[in-house]
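Deliverable D2.4 — example input (C-alpha cells):
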C-alpha cells in the first residue's frame, strides 16, 4: 500500500509567495498528449518571461531542483524550465530558487503530457531526463518518458540540432531508450553505460539519486539524442 506525501505546512501561502516563478499549473485537467495537442493552448512567450533572447532548456522531473539550480548557475546565458508534476514536491525548488535569487529558472507544475499546451514548437535547445521512473511493469512502457510517444513530442519542441539528454541507473530502461531514440530518428551521441568509470566528469552535475547509486557502486548510463530534423 503506497503512502501519500503529507501536504507541507502553509502550502497555499508558500506557493502563492512563489507564484512569479510558476508559469503553468494543472493544464485544465488535460491528462494526455492528444488532448494537449487539440484542446488547449497557453504558449509561453519566453522573451517576455525572461526578458532576453537566450536559449531555453527544460528538465522534466526536477524533484528537489538541485540539478537545474546548479545548471542555471553554471550557465547564466541559458534560460531553464523545470517541470515537476507533484505540487507538494515542486514547492521546495520554487522556494530555493527564490531564496537564492537564481533569475534564469521558471517552473511548470504539470504533467509531461501537457508540454505541447505551453511550449512553442521549435523553441527548446535541450531536454534533460535525469533518473526518470523506469516503470518496468509490463504494459507501462507507453508511460516511460523515453517512449516514442513522448519522443515525438520532444521532436516538435526542440530546435534543429536540439538534444534530449538522459541519465539513468536502470539498464533495462536505458536499452529500451536507445531503441526508442533510434526508432524516432534521433542521432545518438556520447552513449555510455558507465558515466563514472573514470571518476565524475568535470561537466557532469551529480543529482541526488546519482550520488546514492554511485556510492552503492552502481553504474550510471547516459546518452544524448540529437534531433536534426
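Example output (designed residues):
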Amino acid at each position: 500500500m503506497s503512502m501519500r506525501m503529507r501536504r507541507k505546512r502553509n502550502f497555499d501561502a508558500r506557493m502563492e509567495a512563489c507564484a512569479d516563478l510558476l508559469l503553468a499549473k494543472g493544464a485544465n485537467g488535460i491528462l494526455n498528449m492528444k488532448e494537449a495537442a487539440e484542446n488547449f493552448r497557453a504558449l509561453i512567450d519566453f522573451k517576455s518571461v525572461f526578458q532576453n533572447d537566450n536559449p531555453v532548456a527544460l528538465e522534466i522531473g526536477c524533484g528537489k531542483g538541485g540539478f537545474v539550480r546548479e545548471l542555471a548557475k553554471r550557465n547564466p546565458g541559458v534560460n531553464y524550465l523545470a517541470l515537476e508534476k507533484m505540487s507538494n514536491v515542486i514547492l521546495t525548488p520554487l522556494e530555493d530558487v527564490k531564496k537564492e535569487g537564481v533569475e534564469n529558472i521558471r517552473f511548470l507544475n504539470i504533467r509531461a503530457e501537457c508540454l505541447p499546451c505551453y511550449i512553442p514548437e521549435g523553441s527548446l535547445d535541450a531536454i534533460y531526463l535525469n533518473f526518470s521512473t523506469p516503470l518496468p511493469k509490463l504494459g507501462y512502457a507507453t508511460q516511460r518518458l523515453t517512449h516514442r510517444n513522448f519522443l515525438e513530442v520532444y521532436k516538435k519542441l526542440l530546435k534543429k540540432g536540439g538534444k534530449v539528454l538522459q541519465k539513468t541507473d536502470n539498464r533495462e530502461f536505458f536499452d529500451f531508450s536507445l531503441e526508442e531514440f533510434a526508432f524516432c530518428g534521433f542521432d545518438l551521441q556520447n552513449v555510455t553505460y558507465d558515466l563514472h568509470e573514470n571518476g565524475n566528469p568535470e561537466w557532469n552535475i551529480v543529482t541526488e539519486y546519482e550520488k546514492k547509486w554511485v556510492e552503492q557502486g552502481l553504474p550510471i548510463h547516459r546518452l544524448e539524442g540529437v534531433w536534426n530534423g
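The CA atoms of residues 28 and 196 lie 42 Å apart.
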